[in-house]
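Structural prep section.
Before we set up the soaks we want a predicted structure of the protein with flavin-adenine dinucleotide in place, mainly to decide which crystallisation condition to try first. Input record follows.
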Amino acid sequence: MPTTEIEYPVLQHFLCIAESRTGMPVQPTDVAPEQPLRAQQKQQEDDATPKQLPKGVVLGPDGKPCRSCTSVSAWFAMANQQTGGKTKSAAAVTPKVSSDCPPDVEQLGRSTWTLLHSMTANYPEQPTVTQQTETKQFIGLFSKMYPCWVCADDFRTWMKQGNEPRVSNREEFGRWMCEAHNAVNEKLGKKSFDCNKWEERWRTGWKDGRCG
Ligand SMILES: Cc1cc2nc3c(=O)[nH]c(=O)nc-3n(C[C@H](O)[C@H](O)[C@H](O)COP(=O)(O)OP(=O)(O)OC[C@H]3O[C@@H](n4cnc5c(N)ncnc54)[C@H](O)[C@@H]3O)c2cc1C
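Run finished without errors. Recording the tokens verbatim:
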């Protein structure tokens, strides 16, 4: 039997497990032509062969676990499983991660939001047409290249739902980014941030003076 007939059903099953346990869609919302593997996984869904991955482990387009898409606790649970440990629950594992390890989905997210909000904070109050065009291009490319592909897919989908980048001036761009971040917060069940305060958080510092 060809290798593909064995592997793809297994991978599809992993995707289903990841989706049901994380609540994150593991199938891309707009499948690019260069990603035929995912389409084949979907077609062979019915042939799935049972295999367990710990909660929260998300596979990448190559069918391998995607570290940038997975929390560090889920990653450690998987590593524990692979090395013969009996623990399959992410909650049962307490990882101690060195600061020079590859980022998990949360660390990558925090760093990225810091960059994105800081870009809005330093955006001109009166940008040129070229600056506006280039900013839109950046966001478009960012949404394709963000290393957590499930995050990127959802971000592109959100933008297509009437949320195209608003870049006419700093205030508008800062608010748009805040709304984009809130869309992810909402998806993850986190508290919404008050977008009236985006500038205090990311540009001026809080009025109580704690940021100097
Ligand atoms: C484009 C994108 C898509 C993502 N999609 C996913 C996903 O699908 N699944 C997933 O697990 N993770 C995703 N992430 C990561 C996720 O958003 C968080 O970064 C991660 O969960 C860590 O969260 P946190 O609670 O530490 O704070 P973060 O959400 O990273 O926020 C960092 C800080 O920003 C401030 N802040 C919070 N909300 C706002 C806001 N609306 N406006 C301005 N400032 C704000 C707060 O001070 C907060 O402490 C995504 C990240 C990005 C950049």
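Observations: The chain has two domains: 3-92, 105-204.
Flagged for discussion at group meeting.
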